UniProtKB/TrEMBL annotation:
It comes from Heliobacterium chlorum. InterPro entries: DUF2225, TPR-like_helical_dom_sf. It comes from the Bacteria. It holds the Pfam family DUF2225. This is DUF2225 domain-containing protein.
Length: 346
C-alpha cells in the first residue's frame, strides 16, 4: 500500500468554537506494528498512527485525542477564554504530520487537558505519548521531561483516581518501568514487586512476565550503576495489547479552574513566527530553565517562552544597545550590564 492510500480525511466540528475542519486519519489496514516496547510504546513500519491521534482545531487550538474530541466537559466560557489567552501561531496539523508537528499536537492536547481539568491518568497517557515522539526525534531531554511527567501523573492517578482501579496491575507495572527509565532503580524495583505480588497479576500473565523481566534488568542496571538511555526493545514475540488505554475524559466530573495567565509584559504588536538557529548548549540551557516551573509547581513552559522572557528582560534593561562590532563584543556588553546594570565603562 502506498503512503497516500494510508490516509483519509474526516470532517469534524470543534466543540469549543464551532469551526468545521478536516482531520487526517490513518487506515487501519495500512498500519504495521513492528514491535512493542516495555512501556507499551509501539514501533510501526511506515506510517505512525500516533502522529494523527490528536485532533487540533485550526481556529482555537482546542486539541484532544480522537476518541474524546467531541466529549468536551467543563465550563465552556472558561475553556474558550483560556484557549484564547494561550493562543499563538501553530503549525498546520492537516495532512501528513512530521514528528515535530505530532509532538506539538500532544503538547496542545496536554494544555487542553489541563484547562479542562481532565484526570491524571489522561494527562499521564498524553505525556507518555509525547515522550515517545520526543524519543523518536532523538530529543533526550524532552523525552525525559515527558517521561518524568507521565510518571508523576500515573503515580497521582494510582493514589487518587478510581478509574484506574480496573487495570491496577498494568499501571503498577508501568510506574515501575517509568521509574526504571529515569534511573530510579529502587523505586522501580518496589513497583515491579508490587505488580507481581498483586493477586490479580495471574489474570495478566504478559504483565507478570514483563514485570519480572524488567525487574531483572533494573537489578543489572542498578549493579552496573548506569542510567537507561533508551528503552531496550523487546523481542517481537512479546507483542502485547496496548493496555495503557487513555480513559474517556467524559467520565470526569471534576473541573479545575483554568490556570491563571499572568500577563506582566504588554507588547504592542502581534506575535511573529521567527526561526532561530542556536548552539546545542544554548538549547540545553533553555530546556533546563523551561523545566523549572514544572519542578516547582507542575506548570508547563516551553523553551520559546524562556527565550521570550529573556528578550523581554533585555528590552527592559537595555532598550538601546550600541558600541559593538561583533557577537563577542555584544555578549561582553550584555554580561557587563547584567552584572552591574550599567553600561560598561560607566
Ligand atoms: Zn475551535
Amino acid at each position: 500500500m502506498t503512503t497516500e492510500n494510508a490516509f483519509f480525511s474526516l470532517q469534524k466540528t470543534c466543540p469549543v468554537c464551532g469551526r468545521s475542519f478536516s482531520v487526517t486519519r490513518t487506515r487501519s489496514s495500512s498500519i504495521r506494528a513492528k514491535e512493542r516496547q516495555a512501556d507499551f510504546r509501539v514501533i510501526f513500519e511506515g506510517v505512525n498512527p500516533l502522529y494523527y491521534q490528536v485532533y487540533v482545531c485550526p481556529a482555537c487550538n482546542y486539541a484532544a485525542l480522537d476518541n474524546s474530541f467531541d466529549n468536551l466537559t467543563g465550563n465552556m466560557v472558561t475553556i474558550r477564554r483560556s484557549l484564547l489567552d494561550a493562543q499563538q501561531q501553530e503549525p498546520d496539523f492537516q495532512g501528513c504530520r512530521t514528528a515535530e508537528v505530532a509532538l506539538r499536537s500532544f503538547q496542545l492536547a496536554l494544555r487542553t487537558a489541563q484547562i479542562c481539568g481532565y484526570s491524571q491518568s489522561v494527562q499521564g497517557a498524553l505525556s507518555l505519548r509525547a515522550a515517545w515522539i520526543a524519543r523518536e526525534l532523538g530529543d533526550h531531554d524532552t523525552d525525559r521531561m515527558y517521561t518524568e511527567q507521565a510518571l508523576h501523573y500515573y503515580e497521582q492517578a494510582f493514589e487518587n483516581d478510581r478509574s484506574t482501579k480496573s487495570n491496577t496491575v498494568t499501571i503498577t507495572y508501568l510506574i515501575g518501568e517509568l521509574h526504571r527509565q529515569v534511573g530510579h532503580y529502587n523505586d522501580a524495583i518496589r513497583w515491579f514487586s508490587r505488580a507481581v505480588t498483586n493477586p490479580s497479576v495471574k489474570q495478566e500473565p504478559e504483565i507478570e512476565r514483563l514485570a519480572r523481566q524488567q525487574w531483572e534488568l533494573t537489578r543489572q542496571q542498578a549493579k552496573a550503576g548506569t542510567e537507561d538511555e533508551a528503552l531496550a526493545p523487546l523481542s517481537a514475540s512479546s507483542i502485547l495489547p496496548v493496555v495503557a488505554q487513555v480513559q474517556d475524559p467524559t467520565n470526569e466530573k471534576t473541573v479545575h479552574p483554568a490556570p491563571n495567565v499572568v500577563k506582566t509584559k504588554k507588547h504592542s504588536g502581534p506575535k511573529i513566527r521567527f526561526t532561530v538557529t542556536l548552539y546545542e548548549d544554548e538549547v540545553d540551557w533553555l530546556k533546563k530553565v523551561s523545566t523549572v516551573p514544572y519542578k516547582e509547581a507542575k506548570e508547563f513552559m516551553d523553551k520559546e517562552t524562556v527565550l521570550r522572557a529573556l528578550l523581554d528582560a533585555a528590552l527592559e534593561v537595555f532598550p538601546d544597545v550600541q558600541g559593538f562590532t561583533n557577537e563577542d563584543e555584544l555578549r561582553e556588553q550584555f554580561i557587563q550590564r547584567m552584572k552591574d546594570g550599567k553600561k560598561p565603562g560607566n
